[in-house]
Write a structure and sequence with these properties.
Blueprint lengths: L1 E5 H5 L6 H4 L15 E3 L2 E3 L1 H20 L9 H12 L4 H19 L6 H27 L14 H4 L20 H20 L2 H24 L5 H4 L8 H12 L10 H22 L15 H15 L2 H7 L2 H8 L1 H8 L3 H5 L9 H32 L14 E5 H4 L23
Antiparallel strand pairs: 1-4, 2-3
Length: 440
């Protein structure tokens, strides 16, 4: 059973969800539900903030560790640390799964909103565009003459139009400074089309389409790679070839709103995630051939978003060790500022790597020290950007919410929120429509 709850009644003046939930029909308690924490912008799930923080840290460490490949190996500890960081490239798949899950949840919860499209797109614009286009204005409007920016000026149109991921088809490269913008383009293109898809389709049709798109995306990417039409890295950056994480996350959002909620698929998520995770490791470190159809960009890559979607299900469900680990304060800190961290980190990567102090006598310590310094610099920049610039636009998002409440209605699975004898469980469950993905 689904109950519509006015979040204003929950969040305003320090009121809690408890009196509202107690008015819902009695159903058997289906298990502990996700812990929620209030914030100025709505209710937030700590474990999902941590999931997002893990994703952005993985990507940052991946990019900042790549120059170390030129250094000689220094034993198993060095090899293990370096390859652990290099596996962080999969962090973008974590972002895709999370974006598909949260964006689809927002859209499903607001289908009855008379301003469904206007509110969604304006809130995305206010969250994404100020930082993204602010960076482009500074780089190509003020710093276009610098050595680091000047080579990219003739090709900046790809970035202004949010189609960086297709630039490779014309032989254009944004390595290293703007190369990471390809994933932002993939998400933005998804945001552009997916609201109409969710609006037009029934829940059953949305499930079928999500599964079909995951299969088609895999087959298309593998076909382009196996026939030699495109290089693996280029094929993997094209939106039609990289939909698995986004649509699997969307599928999870639908399942979360079915009877039993995420608690009902918990055991399936555990064993499917475990199998997919092992298969992903085999594809990455055993098969290794990213250029082949079985490599980590071919068939083997499907296991990555599948594993992360299962991990996401366990995090959003809110129970167990996994959710508690992701809810630690320092991970949630990185999750809060993940968008700025992602946008800024690679812009400064050439400058930071040029100042990498490699000490042969203590190679592992050199690697860890460089990572700590690089992350610290990017964190300071992201903090300044969020508090001095981005937050000004975030305040405007409240103008584009469901007029029935200050933050809009939430869909809550009553079976997962109503305890025995009609009493609410200790922790209320919800998927807040204000809990946004990294670039939303």
């Amino acid at each position: 059973m689904l109950v519509r709850i006015d979040e204003k009644s929950c969040m305003g003046h320090g009121m809690s969800l408890t009196p509202i939930l107690s008015q819902a029909p009695t159903r058997a308690y289906a298990g502990n539900s996700p812990e929620l924490q209030p914030s100025p912008h709505g209710l937030r799930m700590p474990a999902l903030d941590g999931f997002r923080g893990w994703a952005v840290l993985a990507v940052i460490l991946y990019h900042f560790s790549r120059p170390m490949l030129a250094e000689p190996s220094h034993g198993r500890a060095w090899w293990a640390a370096l390859h652990l960081m290099l596996a962080g490239g999969y962090g973008v798949d974590m972002f895709f799964a999370l974006s598909g899950f949260l964006i689809s949840g927002i859209l499903l919860a607001s289908k009855a909103d008379p301003h469904y499209f206007r509110n969604f797109y304006m809130r995305r614009v206010l969250r994404i565009f100020p930082l993204y286009y602010g960076v482009l204005i500074v780089c190509f409007g003020l710093l276009w003459w610098t050595t680091a920016i000047k080579p990219f000026v003739p090709h900046s149109g790809w970035m202004w139009l949010y189609v960086t991921n297709f630039a490779g088809l014309k032989g254009v490269s944004f390595e290293p400074t703007f190369d990471h913008f390809w994933s932002l383009a993939v998400e933005e293109q998804f945001y552009l089309v997916w609201p109409l898809v969710v609006y037009l389709l029934s829940t059953r049709s949305l499930v079928k389409l999500s599964i079909a798109l995951a299969v088609v995306s895999l087959l298309l990417r593998c076909g382009l790679i196996s026939t030699g039409v495109l290089e693996p890295n280029l094929a993997a950056e094209l939106t039609p070839c990289r939909l698995e994480g986004l649509v699997l996350g969307s599928l999870l959002a639908v399942l979360a709103r079915q009877p039993g909620g995420l608690a009902g698929i918990r055991h399936h998520a555990i064993w499917i995630g475990a199998v997919a995770g092992i298969a992903a490791l085999v594809s990455k470190f055993v098969v290794r051939s990213s250029g082949g159809i079985w490599g980590d960009l071919g068939i083997g890559h499907l296991t990555v978003p599948l594993a992360f979607t299962c991990m996401l299900a366990l995090a959003a469900e809110g129970r167990g060790l996994w959710a508690r680990l992701l809810s630690v304060r320092w991970l949630r800190f990185f999750g809060k500022y993940s968008y700025g961290l992602y946008v800024f980190h690679y812009l400064f990567e050439p400058w930071l790597d040029a100042r990498f102090w490699y000490l042969p006598s203590i190679p592992l310590a050199s690697l860890l020290l460089h990572m700590a310094c690089a992350v610290s610099v990017v964190v300071v920049i992201a903090l300044a950007s969020w508090h001095c610039y981005e937050r000004l636009f975030l305040k405007l998002k409240m103008r584009f919410e469901d007029k029935k409440s200050s933050t809009g209605p939430m869909l809550i699975n009553a079976e997962a929120t109503i305890g025995p004898r009609g009493h609410p469980p200790r922790r209320p469950a919800s998927l807040s429509r204000n809990y946004l993905p990294p670039a939303a």
